[in-house]
Each structure stands twice: as C-alpha cells, then as structure tokens.
Amino acid sequence: MAITNAEILDAVGSMSVLDLTAFIKEIEEKFGVSAAAVAVAAGGAAGAPAAAAAEQTEFTVFILTPGEQKVSAIKAVRELTGLGLKEAKDLVDGAPKAVKEGVSKADADAALKKLIEAGATGEIK
Q: Is the whole model's pTM more than 0.90, yes or no?
C-alpha cells in the first residue's frame, strides 16, 4: 500500500513546529541535503519507516506555568534568553512556550533548574 502525497501533507500539517523542525533535521541527515532541497527529498522520507532513534543531542526547554512568583519566572526567562522585559513577560504569559531551543543536555538541565528555582514549572524535550 503506497502513501499518497495528500496523506504525507496531512501528516506534516498536523505536526507541531518543534516536531517539524526535528523532522527536517532528520531528512537533512538521512539524505545529506540542506533545508533548501528538503522539498525534493521529503516525499521519500515521509514514506519510509522511521529509523532507529539516534541519541538526542539537542534539547528544548519549555516553561509550562510561571507559578505563583510570576516576576521571578520573568527574571529567570530574561536571564536565560537575553530578552527584554516585555518579550520575557509575553513569553511567560503565553506559557507553555519554548524558552531555549537546540541546547545541550547540560544547558537544558541548568535552564530547567533555574526556572524551577524561580517557582515556574517546566520540562525538557
């Protein structure tokens, strides 16, 4: 049974931005192409079964809720991201949101620890 282009587009359309970014990276690695050429290779990659998951080297830290000490959470986000006050407040108010993307496991753990110390809840993906 072959997968149709419409089915592939539906699957890609239902992905979150983070999942789509990871998918594009997998395509780049598997086929040795850049993001500009991914459109050509995407049809073949989407139809193939997923390869054994390689060990994850890049992580994303999310703030799920700011907690009761919202000001502390905003300060922690500013420190982690270098954002201005308004941008950090908007990020915290819009939680759950990604705070740091594409960081090492150690950096992700440190960022999550800082958010938790500020009273926020978060997770690493």
A: no
CA 16 to chain centre: 9
45 close to 31: Cβ distance less than 8 angstroms: yes
The amino acid that residue 21 corresponds to is: T
pLDDT in tens, 48-59: 444 445 677 788
Which position has the token pair 């050429």? 37
Q: What is the DSSP letter of 96?
A: S
Residue type for 7, please? E
> DSSP string covering 16-32, please?
-HHHHHHHHHHHHHHHT
Contact by Cβ (8 Å): 92, 75:
no
- Cα of first residue to Cα of last residue in the chain, in angstroms, is 33
Is the CB of residue 63 less than 8 Å from the CB of residue 96? Answer: yes
| Sheet bearing 121-124, strands edge to edge | 97-103, 59-65, 121-124
pLDDT < 70 regions, the chain: 1, 35-54
Please tell me the predicted confidence (pLDDT) of residue 54. Answer: 60
